[in-house]
Amino acid sequence: MDAYRYLLDLAIILLSTKVLGLLTKKVQMPQVVGALLAGLILGPAGFGLLTETSFIHEVAEIGVIVLMFSAGMETDIKELKASGKASFIIALFGVLVPLAGGYAVAWFFNKPGAIESDVTSPVFLQNIFIGVILTATSVSITVETLKELGKLKTRSGNAILGAAIIDDVLGIIALTIVTSMADDSVSLGIVLLKIVGFFAFSGIIGLIFYKIYKKWVDEAEKELHRHTIIAFVFCLIMAFVAEEVFGVADITGAYIAGLIISNVQRSTYLESKFDTMSYLLLSPVFFASIGLKVELPKMSMTIIAFAVVLTIVAVITKIIGCGLGAKVCGYKNYQVKRIGVGMISRGEVALIVASKGAALGLMSSALLGPIIVVVVITTIITPVMLKVVFAPGTAPAAEQIVPESERVKSYYENREDNR
Fold first, then answer.
1. What angle do CA 75, 396, 332 make, to 5 degrees?
2. Whether the Cβ atoms of residue 367 and residue 130 lie closer than 8 Å to each other
3. Higher pLDDT among residues 197 and 121, named by residue
4. 312 pLDDT exceeds 90?
5. pLDDT confidence of residue 13
6. Positive or negative CA dihedral for 143, 149, 153, 158?
7. pLDDT above 50: residue 12
8. Do residues 345 and 137 lie in contact, with contact meaning Cβ atoms separated by under 8 Å?
9. Which of 75, 106, 147, 201 has a CA-to-CA distance to 273 between 20 and 30 Å?
10. In this model, does residue 412 exceed pLDDT 60?
11. Mean pLDDT value across residues 338-367
């Protein structure tokens, strides 16, 4: 019976995410909120009907890879290049401000006798690490919400995507610096060299693959399934190489693979195929799995206060940090708000960083509860707040949509009507 339990788990996840997604849509919220709530309600933090098995974890990992690959295919390269400098500045402010905010909160609460600690690393490093956790951004939630709203290809959407990728790299560097201070086996120089190596590798391999793939596709008289399969193979290889060879997040490799494919003439056909695979199976499992990770431990009043303050700071510092970066780069006020809100979600990224720190003795197990609270709340409120800041009438005029994206935009709007 247990050998086939995964079939029942899948059925429950797909049904619950769709039902709750439709309910949240009824109250004018993005459907991704319903999918997140489904995981929370059915998981250990709720009724305990589901737990995250290795199967669910691996399907969810493929889900986020496909989600970011699709986001890459929908990104306009010219606009991304134009916003490259701005994305770096936005990401830089979006890392520094939360880092300072997280450290300040930890410095205030994490004192001997105030919070029980089971680690031996210096308190200064523990506090810095809390700040590092807040630098994380889980752009997958934002991507799905912007796709649902039809705003992924706006100027704000491109800025968020670019900043999120750079944020990921800066976050790795920040994590490496702190862990290298606690673990002598970690070399900052080697990590930085690997990051540079990955982007150099992506540029060379990407150019070669693009020329061969485009020639092959253009010579075909019509769209073929084999085009989609080879594109997916390239996505998976790039994700694997990024994570295993260069130590960069697999979703970064998948996103860059999507960027490379986005220049192919028939990328709209590819997008439709991957979108079907995503919303039919992979995305519901991924978003539900975030909720399934949540297990709220017993928390003292001090820990609860720490969780509340840390959550507020997590939200405010991303809005202020990324918004300030956007303002410096000349974005309009309504775009500043959109970019700031789009970077709030911490998602699974913060959980991964937190687990890394706990393993290295940089974070007490007593602080895991507050981190989970931050992840849950920022993950749920991000799509809700995006709905507000992208609502009609919040901008002087609609942001320009890249002309060649009109067919894709129309496709998603029609797909949404039929969900």
1. 60
2. yes
3. 197
4. yes
5. 94
6. negative
7. yes
8. yes
9. 201
10. no
11. 79
Q: Tens of pLDDT along 241-298?
A: 988 898 777 877 888 898 888 877 666 777 778 888 888 888 889 888 877 876 666 6
Tell me what pLDDT residue 30 has.
67
> How buried is 18 (Cβ within 10 angstroms: 0-12 exposed, 13-18 middle, 19+ buried)?
middle
**pLDDT score for 321:** 95
Pair 334, 394: CB distance under 8 Å: yes
**370 Cβ partners below 8 Å, 6+ apart?**
299, 303, 306, 307, 310, 311
Three-state SS letters, the chain: CHHHHHHHHHHHHHHHHHHHHHHHHHCCCCHHHHHHHHHHHHCCCCCCCCCCCHHHHHHHHHHHHHHHHHHHHCCCHHHHHHCHHHHHHHHHHHHHHHHHHHHHHHHHHCCCCCCCCCCCCCHHHHHHHHHHHHHCCCHHHHHHHHHHHCCCCCHHHHHHHHHHHHHHHHHHHHHHHHHHHHCCCCCHHHHHHHHHHHHHHHHHHHHHHHHHHHHHHHHCCCCCHHHHHHHHHHHHHHHHHHHHHCCCCHHHHHHHHHHHHCCCCCHHHHHHHHHHHHHHHHHHHHHHHHHHCCCCCCCCHHHHHHHHHHHHHHHHHHHHHHHHHHHHCCCCHHHHHHHHHHCCCCHHHHHHHHHHHHHCCCCCHHHHHHHHHHHHHHHHHHHHHHHHHCCCCCCCCCCCCCHHHHHHHHHHHHHHHCC
Q: What would the two tokens of residue 283 be? A: 């995305």
Tokens of 91: 């990401």
Angular region, 264: left φ>0, alpha ψ -120 to 50, beta rest: beta
Q: What are residue 392's phi and psi, to 5 degrees?
A: -55, 140
Residue 107, judged by CB atoms within 10 A of its CB (0-12, 13-18, 19+), counts as middle
Residue 344 near residue 322, CB atoms below 8 Å? no
For residue 362, the Cα-to-chain-centroid distance in whole angstroms is 24
What is the distance between the alpha carbons of residues 228 and 180, in angstroms, rounded to a whole number?
Answer: 41
Tell me which residue has tokens 């800066």. Answer: 170
The residues near 255 (Cβ < 8 Å, ≥ 6 apart) are 68, 69, 71, 72, 161, 165
Of 106-110, 170-174, 371-375, give the lowest mean pLDDT range.
170-174
